[in-house]
């Protein structure tokens, strides 16, 4: 009987030792999966917030007939935190893809957002309302007039995932871009001197490139 008790004690001890070893081997993997899951949640949440900010910014700007640099700066300060690097690129596009002005870059950093202004002053990315206007039938002239009369505001909001202080390095240095495209309520937009100078600078830099 004593021998069997000793043997059973040895087996229980070995099983407990094996469980400890297995847990020690699995712990790094479990921690990595937990951190990666946390990072994915934070990135998903940040993207949702960014989409909301881009839509809000576009909604406000499309209803204004006068834009001022202090007003836009105040709006950005209200919508975006100061501790994160971001760029906002604003383009005004006709339905025929003509850029009314070259993309206006705002924010506390530059060269984050891709530019969709191609050669000839045409917008190169997709437009949601473009598919609703066709050129077939007897209404082609009316469609052409509508292409020139309707202006769309394209707001690009870009930032790097580095600012999220992620726990793992899997998602670092990824560009996060949100685009909101909305129809403008006013065909004529008055810009203050600061915004006009910024547009002229963008135009000169593009011509000199």
Describe the structure.
This protein is α+β, with helices and mostly antiparallel strands. The protein has one domain (47-208). It is 47% helix and 19% strand. The protein has 4 helices and 6 strands; from the N terminus they run H-E-H-E-E-H-E-E-E-H. It has helices at 2-62, 69-79, 140-149, 193-208; strands at residues 66-67, 87-94, 99-107, 151-160, 175-183, 190-191. Strands 3-2-4-5 form a 4-stranded antiparallel sheet. Strand 2 (87-94) and strand 3 (99-107) form a beta hairpin. It is elongated, with a radius of gyration of 28 Å. Mean pLDDT is 77; it is low at 133-141.
What is the topology?
Elements: H1 2-62, E1 66-67, H2 69-79, E2 87-94, E3 99-107, H3 140-149, E4 151-160, E5 175-183, E6 190-191, H4 193-208
Parallel strand pairs: 1-6
Antiparallel strand pairs: 2-3, 2-4, 4-5
């Amino acid at each position: 009987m004593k021998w069997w008790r000793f043997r059973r004690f040895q087996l229980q001890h070995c099983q407990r030792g094996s469980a400890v070893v297995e847990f020690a081997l699995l712990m790094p993997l479990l921690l990595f999966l937990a951190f990666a899951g946390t990072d994915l949640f934070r990135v998903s949440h940040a993207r949702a917030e960014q989409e909301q900010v881009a839509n809000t910014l576009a909604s406000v700007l499309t209803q204004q007939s006068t834009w001022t640099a202090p007003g836009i700066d105040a709006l950005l300060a209200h919508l975006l935190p100061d501790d994160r690097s971001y760029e906002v690129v604003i383009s005004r596009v006709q339905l025929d893809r003509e850029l009314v002005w070259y993309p206006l870059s705002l924010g506390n950093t530059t060269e984050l957002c891709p530019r969709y202004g191609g050669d000839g002053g045409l917008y190169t990315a997709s437009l949601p309302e473009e598919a609703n206007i066709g050129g077939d039938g007897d209404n082609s002239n009316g469609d052409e007039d509508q292409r020139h009369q309707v202006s769309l505001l394209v707001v690009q909001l870009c930032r790097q995932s580095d600012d999220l202080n992620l726990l793992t390095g899997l998602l670092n240095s990824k560009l996060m871009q949100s685009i909101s495209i909305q129809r403008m309520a006013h065909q004529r937009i008055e810009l203050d001197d600061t915004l006009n100078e910024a547009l002229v600078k963008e135009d000169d830099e593009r011509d000199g490139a």
